[in-house]
Amino acid sequence: xxxxxxxxxxxxxxxxxxxxxxxxxxxxxxxxxxxxxxxxxxxxxxxxxxxxxxxxxxxxxxxxxxxxxxxxxxxxxxxxxxxxxxxxxxxxxxxxxxxxxxxxxxxxxxxxxxxxxxxxxxxxxxxxxxxxxxxxxxxxxxxxxxxxxxxxxxxxxxxxxxxxxxxxxxxxxxxxxxxxxxxxxxxxxxxxxxxxxxxxxxxxxxxxxxxxxxxxxxxx
Length: 220
Ligand SMILES: C[S@@+](CC[C@H](N)C(=O)[O-])C[C@H]1O[C@@H](n2cnc3c(N)ncnc32)[C@H](O)[C@@H]1O
What we know:
This protein is an alpha/beta fold. It has a single domain (3-211), classed as Vaccinia Virus protein VP39 (Rossmann fold), CATH 3.40.50.150. The chain has 8 helices and 7 strands. It has helices spanning 3-22, 26-29, 31-45, 79-92, 128-138, 160-168, 170-173, 183-188; strands at residues 51-55, 71-76, 96-100, 113-119, 139-150, 192-199, 205-211. The structure holds S-adenosylmethionine. S-adenosylmethionine (SAM) is lined by residues 12, 15, 19, 56-58, 61, 75-78, 81, 102-104, 119-121, 124-125.
């Protein structure tokens, strides 16, 4: 095992431990931000349809906004976030399949989902390009990848909101929160951006509708 792989594994474990630790409080801590995020979630998820995978499903905050008829599977790396998602699904009377899994190594065959969704996840994935490639692998050729993510305003430098979060509640929200998805990651993963919206006062949240790479490795 190379040093880089060991480091990525440690980062992944740190994210898992962190989200397991905060799972009980997660919805409470996010309650104010959620007033802003909710309409964005609604708008993004209106594009979902058919067999759908949500990666980094967390406590299931997107569940209420899926259009009727979506057959939803969710994965997350943290058991306790999944437990909260299970409770939310039960409360909403939704049938959702939930699995413990890593975004960077999905155990699904290639090209099986009509829609793949991920919201506010890739800031805590050690190798976001690898994870985004996985999203591109499991979605159908004509399928959609729906993303909402924080981005750094300048490469390597968090925006004011994330900077403040980073310093004020970093201990609560976790050490990985300042590792932002950039549009370059999406492009490096070979995804085709179909639409892009800049959201929030500082435009530091991006809503991306993408498709998989045109050229995909066969046999996935
Ligand atoms: C900031 S929360 C967002 C949760 C949810 N998507 C939302 O919009 O509220 C990030 C989630 O990603 C999960 N996560 C982090 N790294 C992951 C990985 N490598 N694979 C799968 N899930 C991961 C965390 O456990 C956590 O539930």
